[in-house]
Amino acid sequence: MAAKPPANKKTMPFQGFPEGKSQITRLPQAFFRQLLPQIDHLGELKLTVYVFWRLEQVEGAFRFLRAADFAQDETFIQGLGCPLEEALERAVKRGALLEARLELDGKAERLYLLNSPKGRAARHAIESGQWRPAEGAPAAPPSQPANIFRLYEENIGPLTPLIAEALGEAEDTYPAGWIEDAMRIAVEGNKRTWRYVAAILERWQREGRHDKKKAPQDRSDAAEAGRKYIEGEYSDYIEH
Known about the structure:
It is a single chain. The chain is mostly helical. Among the domains are: 29-127, Orthogonal Bundle (Arc Repressor Mutant, subunit A), CATH 1.10.10; 148-207, no CATH class. The protein is built from eleven helices and three strands. Strands 1-3-2 form a three-stranded antiparallel sheet, with helices on both faces. The N and C termini lie far apart (43 Å).
C-alpha cells in the first residue's frame, strides 16, 4: 500500500502555469496509448513521468539516472507517496524503465534508463562492459530555468519581435541551461548578439557539448564510446 503523506503537511494549491512560452517535456504517443492505461499505482505513474522530464536534462549519448539522483530531489521524493524503491521496482517490472547493474565507486550500483531503442542500446553497452559511466557524486536536480527573454534583455540587448520569435524557437530546441550558458559566453567575450549566441548553440548541437570540469581521460573515453556506437550496430538509436 502506498505511504500517505504526513497528516500535518499543508500543500499550497497550484498557482497555474506561467505566462509566455514554457519549456516542454515531450512524451511519446505510446505512453498514452499503451503504458498509461496499464499503470494502476500513483507512485509508479509519478516516477515514470518524472523520468521523462529528468532525462531531458541529462547530456550525453547514454542517458540514465541512479537511485541517488532521484533522492537528490527532495520535493519529488516528498510528493511521491510511496518508497522510491517501490516505485522504481514497479516501473521496471512494468517495462517502462530498464535497470542495468554494475559496480561504481566500489559498490554495486543500479542505473535506470527508459525502455527505448537508445535505452536498450545503452544497457547492452553497460552490461557487456563496452561502456561505463564516470564515477562521481549524484547529479543535483535541475534548477528552475531563468526566463530567457528577460535574460536576453538584461545581457544582450532590446527584445524585438524577431528576436522574441528566435528565442521562442531556441527554447523549444535546446535545454534552457544551454541558452543561459551561451548568453554568458557571449557576454564574457563581448559578443552581445543573438547571432553569436545561436552559433554557439548550433555548434553544441552539432558537435556535442562537453563539460569543462571533466578530466581529459573522461572526455576521451566518452568520445571513444560515442564513436563506437555512432558507427556500430546501434547507430540508428544514438543522437549525433
